[in-house]
Amino acid sequence: MTQVNRRRFLSGGIAVAGGGVLGAFGLSGTAGAAPEARPPQVGGGEIGSGWTFVAADGKAAGSALASAQDVAGLKPAVVPGTPLTSMIANGEYPDPLYGHIVTDTVPDTLKDTAYWYRVAFRVPKPIPGQRFWLQFDGINYLGTVWLNGTKVGTVEGAFKRAVFEVTDIVAKAAGMAWLAVLVGKLDYTDPPALPSYASGVTRGGRNGGPTGITLKNGPTFFCTAGWDWLPTIPDRDLGIWQPVTWRTTGPVRLADVQVTSTLSQDLHTADVSVELALHSAAAKSVVVKGSLDGQEFRRTISVPAGASSVVLTSKDIACLRLDRPKLWWPNGYGDPYRYRLTVSVESSGQVQDERKVDFGIRRIEYTTPMRSPSGTTTDCLAITVNNQPILVMGGNWGLDEALKRIPRERLRAQVRLHRDANLNLIRNWNGQSSTEDFFAACDEYGILVWQDFFCSTEGPPAENTARDLANIRDCIVRFRNHPSILLWCGGNEGPPPQPLIDGLDALVAELDPQRVALTSSAGDTGQNPIDGYRSGGPYHWVPPAKHFSLNDGTQWPPFHNEVGSYSIPTLEFMRKMLPESSWEHPDDFWADRDVNGNGGNGGGAGYLALTADRYGEIRNLPDFARKSQLMNYECIKAIYEAPVANMRSAGPYPRTGVIMWMTNPAQPSFVWQMYSHDLEAHSSYYAVQHACRRINVVLDAKSFDVVVANHGRSPIRGRAEVTLYGLGGAELGRDSFGVDAGASDRTVVGSIAARVKEIPSEIVFARMVLKDSRNSELVRNFYWVENPTRAAGFTALDEMPPATISVIAGVSRHQDGTEVAVDVRNVGKPVALMVHLQIYDVRTGERILPATFSDNYLNLAAGEATTVKAQLNSEQTRHHSNVGIRVDGWKINQQASRLQARGATATFNHEALNTHPETPTFKH
To answer: Is the pTM of this model over 0.70?
Structure first.
């Protein structure tokens, strides 16, 4: 027998508190399931329905609420959820993010009280030796738990789990348990930060509320005090925001399973290590059983009473060494393969507890040496995965959703959009979106995670350092098996207090030494610090050439983790998120949707003026929508294309990563997103998708160099062809360049600067096609550019003749849903610019979302054609039996164009195309 090792018990992340045990376990079974002939020790389920809540007035006691006693004022509650989400569900308030100003719609007093939550649930009749556990995956901010009249424990901080053993209480429950949870209010709060369009800044120009005192609370959703991308949320997202579950085990409990792997340099073998954290009611001998990759194993161990741990390695168990392992790859580089480990503990022929852990095998290197501007050689942040250099192309998430309405399918859809946009990383800003669902989705879709923790320089540090570190510890233990997690980071834009820096470094060294810990997103001050990265914007619209200047290989540092722009949604979504009275009159409703961008471009009014100056007078809201899509596309595309065009061999400071601020919107917004709050992908999304293709041909907006980007492992040989067109669609010039592009690098293959300058036109369209050595097309790209000899913006685009297009829309239904396929062809001479497709329900006229085409905002020269596809899942197919396609674009000759239905209605989006009223109606 193997004697378990008690020495590393604390490193397993378990601590005794409040009469219970804090840790992690898997769940299976159904609450209240009927007993079998030989009842199993292991069972459980989620307590997700039947909840009620009430504001705590100091009168009701936990002993009364955790009983069958009547309590006045209880109302239905959404769990997981917040008090405000429950109130919205109960009809007390409308959704404040649509057609309202949040602070005018919901009183800011919701944050000023604690809340009682209550539920009754059936529990099985206990069998001898069985133990009963309650688990809370997240309570914001302070939780006190009562069961059947007895206080069982507390939990502090929004990101810490709590597990309580309640065996003795349940044994007396007679089949029914009454659970009550007191959710405590924040220790520190500010008054609301109010929107003001006229001010030109967002909510007073200060993040974190008027004073930032909210940040003193420690681990919570401090951004809900009001940020430049989030209105003040009246309840500050208090509540039971993550699932509540119950579970039974035998006398021995598997409190945690940590799986680590060591991949050989040649990637040919991997050694897997499994550490089990155990908690036993008494000393005994148990059998550990498991399987990995179809191979089963078993081992007998002695377990002492209390907490202990045991480590299983390939030295002990042969199947923990994998030959030719399947690897977990970031998106775009290979399959993000995940192995499943199953492990159970058995005694006397009965399963005491069991777990399933999905994990990935990958090898990460974090730095490359680079000579800094000071002349010293420093280790710069540069990611290599499985010996493959990775140019980080990522997005920042501020919060998954403003009111924490994050069912698993919505969250998976958000991460899936990042995968389909060709991104490979999400930065979880200040850890505000830390959930099992989030990391599981990132694992599935191959998205690396830059995992921040809970400190920001926008206010004072957390007052309770021990509480902060306890939440950090639990997050590391809870999520460290996820292959998507790239690194841990102490906080945002500046170093936390030294005790937090020291504490984080020590926790990572103890709990997860294979990963690195950065001090903050602005720099690293730890032992053997990592250099070469920063935050700092720009956060507003700049012309594409500016991004290429900032990323031309001469600017330090090479990794930029915050840079963003305005990102205006579609006409339909703007009308949805604003009251009709504000559609064409920017006001405080626009400001609550963050149009001021905290002063970038001179606030909302400045951005509107910039749009008019670049693309012409804004005539009405549809005209603003179409011009904004061009503004979105050219700036956001350059945010990614500039680093792509200057990676690896560019120098002296080649780009190693860029993370856009932001990609996921927490609320309906005009700024910092690549899709809208209802998950509609507007032009920003396709700008990202086009810029981040793993093989690409890019036009440098500063130099007019033609650059081939090759992120892959094999060289590319062929030709890059560039064709220039005028406003009328006539071909103005053509160039062809030989391509011999090395792996994981960019190659400048030529320049069209001289040819563009010779063209007697202010505006030139450039179509670029990359072909391989067999003349097969690999990728194409498209630009509208100013002639640098007479740069005057793009107001002349309104003088170009309208395009004539053919659109054929078809649908095919299959077992998993519906595929929508649309053939689009330019059948005229003028360029078809930014042709936009929407899927909609013909019966209601509403957009079907999420429904993202394989390509959109199409740019087609004369005679060019493309086929784009979108998938609707089975649920969407059930709810939308009659699917249609709406078409709009920059300028379209509707009378000459041809729309044809092959199973899907095809129509022009007349409202979006109505951009030329007799008298302009847009006021700004």
So the answer is: yes
